[in-house]
Amino acid sequence: MRYTKKEVVEAISSCHPAIEILEAAFVEPDAVDPVSMIADLQSHGGFVAGPPFANWQTFDFADEDVTLEIDGIAHAETKASNPAGSDLLRLVVWLANHGSQRTGGLREGQWITTGNWTGKRRAPAGSSVTVKFTNAGVVSIRFAEAISHERLSLANGPHEG
Question: What's the CA gap between 102 and 94, in Å, rounded?
Answer without folding.
Answer: 12
